[in-house]
Amino acid sequence: MSSVSVTESADCLQVQGHVQYDTPDHITPSNVHTSPLEQFHIWFNQAREANVREPDAMSLSTATTSGIPSSRMVLFKQLDKRGFVFYTNYTSRKSRELEQNPQAALLFFWREMSRQVRVLGRVEKLSKEESEEYFKSRPVGTRLGAWASHQSSVIGEDDLVHRLAEVQERFGVQASDKEGDVPLPDFWGGWRVIPSEVEFWLGKPSRLHDRVRYLRVEGSPDDQPRWTIDRLSP
């Protein structure tokens, strides 16, 4: 049974209950790593060890040039010295918005550990070589799917089935095959979010959560950034 209780009427759904966080550990500017990327590395590995379901799932928020936001769940695929990497179709809504307004927000929520990580930053495309290396590591079915899906476009009921059949015939492989030569599409690849702000959140009793925020020092290089670290009020 959910811990959330509600009161319902004809025109209103009101949430009353909520989870009471009670994590034993604490985070402060004095006990976190001096780099938010290294601190994320530590927390991500702890989430994996704690068997968090889908620790690589993250919310990605983008916005149009007029400021209209949109969010969706995507999969985090890589952390390097510059930032956080994910892959997608370059003709999708998220990519179109990133092309027009190259800023993004990421949010990881590891419910089993009462932890969140929030990331803000500008974006850049990965090189074709980087995207190709990752694309080759994907299962055959997902590589075919990248060719078959015109992501975010309107389609008919059976269009996707027909497109998949066409690309399977084109490349001479089936989605169920273990191996097959399916090349990287020109319209598919990676994005990297280069953080300017990273916040680590730890749930505590009475909503008095621990929050530690890193802000990039202006002018510091992307591959060796400097950071100021502050504790935020919950």
Care to give the gist of this entry?
Keywords: Flavoprotein, FMN, Oxidoreductase. By secondary structure, the protein is an alpha+beta fold. The chain contains 5 helices and 11 strands.
What does this entry look like structurally?
The chain is an alpha+beta fold and 234 residues long. The protein has helices at 36-49, 93-100, 128-137, 140-148, 159-171; strands at residues 6-9, 12-15, 57-63, 69-75, 78-79, 84-89, 103-110, 115-125, 188-202, 210-216, 227-231. It is built from 5 helices and 11 strands, in the order ββαββββαββαααβββ. Strands 3, 4, 5, 6, 7, 8, 9, 10 and 11 form a 9-stranded antiparallel β-sheet that branches. Strands 1-2 form a two-stranded antiparallel sheet. The longest helix has 14 residues, at 36-49. This is pyridoxal 5'-phosphate synthase. Residues 47-161 form the Pyridoxamine 5'-phosphate oxidase N-terminal domain.
List its salient traits.
Pnp Oxidase, Chain A; two-stranded antiparallel sheet; single chain; 234 residues; 9-stranded antiparallel β-sheet
- Rounded Rg: 21 Å
Do you know the CATH topology? Answer: Pnp Oxidase, Chain A
Count the domains.
1
Strand element count: 11
- Work out the helicity level: 10-25%
Instruction: Please state roughly what percent of the residues sit in beta strands, choosing from under 5%, 5-15%, 15-25%, 25-35%, 35-45% or over 45%.
Output: 25-35%
Kindly report the average pLDDT value: 94
CATH superfamily: Electron Transport, Fmn-binding Protein, Chain A
Tell me the name of the CATH class: Mainly Beta
Shape: globular
**pLDDT < 50 stretches:** none
User: Termini separation (Å)?
Assistant: 28 Å
Count of helix runs:
5
CATH architecture descriptor = Roll
For the largest beta-sheet, the strand count, sense and barrel status come to: 9 strands, antiparallel
H-E order: EEHEEEEHEEHHHEEE
Structural class estimated from helices and strands: alpha+beta
